[in-house]
Specification:
Layout: E1 4-11, E2 15-24, E3 27-37, E4 41-43, E5 46-48, H1 51-65, E6 71-76, E7 81-84, H2 105-112, H3 115-122, H4 131-137, H5 142-146, E8 149-152, H6 153-162, E9 167-168, H7 169-172, E10 178-179, E11 184-185, H8 187-192, E12 203-204, E13 209-212, H9 215-221, E14 228-230, H10 236-242, E15 251-256, E16 260-266, H11 273-277, E17 281-284, E18 290-296, H12 300-308, H13 314-323, H14 344-354, H15 363-389, E19 395-400, H16 406-416, E20 420-422, H17 427-439, H18 447-457, E21 461-463, H19 469-480
Parallel strand pairs: 1-6, 9-12, 15-19, 19-20
Antiparallel strand pairs: 1-2, 2-3, 4-5, 7-8, 10-11, 13-14, 15-16, 16-18, 17-18, 20-21
Helix pairs in contact: 10-17, 13-15, 15-16
The structure holds beta-L-fructofuranose.
Amino acid sequence: GGAVRVAAVDLGASSGRVMAFDVTPGRATFVEAHRFPNGPVRLGDTLHWDVLGLYRGVLDGLRAAGPRLDAVGIDSWAVDHGLLDADGALLGNPVHYRDRRTDGVPEAVHARVPAAELYRVTGLQVLPFNTVYQLAAARGTAQLAAARRLLLIPDLLAHWLTGARVTEVTNASTTGLLDARTRTWSADLVARLDLAAGLFTPLVEPGTEVGVLRDHVLAETGLTGPVPVVAVGSHDTASAVVGVPAETGDFAYVATGTWSLVGVELDRPVLSEAGRAANFSNELGVDGTVRYLRNVMGLWLLQECSREWGDPDLGGLLDAAAAEPGLAAVVDAGDPAFIAPGNMPTRIAQACARTGQTPPSTPAAIVRCVLDSLALAHRRAVRQAAELSGRRVEVVHVVGGGARNRLLCQLTADACGLPVVAGPVEAAAYGNALVQARALGVLGGGLRELRELVRSSTGVVRYEPSGDARAWRAAEERLTG
Ligand code: LFR
């Protein structure tokens, strides 16, 4: 029984949020205590994060969420990290995963350890920014030579807040150095890739208390101690999947934001060659689960176009896109060619031309092309996830920012030929907060019970599939040949 107030810190590629959640066994409600911008900072040749700015945003958020907090949990995007020297000091600003330092690096790493071998251990889709490739790109630098510890972004912030040096396992699974079966660091891969084993800190599962806020943090935030920091699904996608309001196990999810993470939840990894060929990842989830999913470019494509056009009113643009003819041109939203920032409308037009389609020329047509392409990528990933894993899928849950994009949700339902249940937008924050509340003892049960609480605490919107199923198949064939 009882009630707790916890702070869910949820850091995305374009903004950070601190949500103050009040949780009882029957209800979870939140207020957004603080929201602050986040984004890349180019310094010379390199794209960085402003990690001290993020830390300050977290402190400001904790102050706004207080003065009484029963716990704090942190989740963020994956793969990126800070390196600490022998004194424990941060070596440079963490590098942004969209930086180009990893161009061509996966190929070089695979010459040492073949991709098929890496996959049999880690079950991870090859994305150039996986931590393992970032570390290979940093080989020979003075910074890596001086590094004694590596901490992923949420663990780095938790370290500054508490002094603890641990690695939360869901996020660790995106490094490319974790054994997906044993949920432990692969000492073999670390050694074969010439990395210092000491870089990698002890792993903790979500729900573990990692430490308490240091005195100077309490003083700065006006909080009354002790305030524990609880490891949550510190990979934002892991927390978002906890926050899916599913009623049964037969669901697929699309966690939308900058990325679309599309897949199913499993009890154990699927490390098949077929899965590798289809670019599926076995990311680890909360409560011993596996997130069997594919990374798809997501709303990044739209955000980048919009930036190019001087950020026009998004509502107007989406209405105009809804009035455009559907599936006139599509691109492969899984193509890593879209990872880097800049020139997005032109790059999309070029991709259409390369596949023999007439490129969209107006903003409305480009936005329609992006949303059709995302829906098509959702369809392909949902179908392949079900096929490759044997998991039944009866409904597709869309959570995260894209859940409020009605056109995207309807197109996803049409493309998948399945009902879409959209919401909550703040699934990651819910997943974060409920794992904390359970660790504190106010909630019991497993993911099913946590999801029931999300369902009863939020509103969702249902979209039924409509339109012509054959048109989606034909569009898919235009891309797959
Ligand atoms: C989503 C996400 C994805 C990850 C990408 C880069 O926010 O965490 O899961 O692949 O960001 O870290």
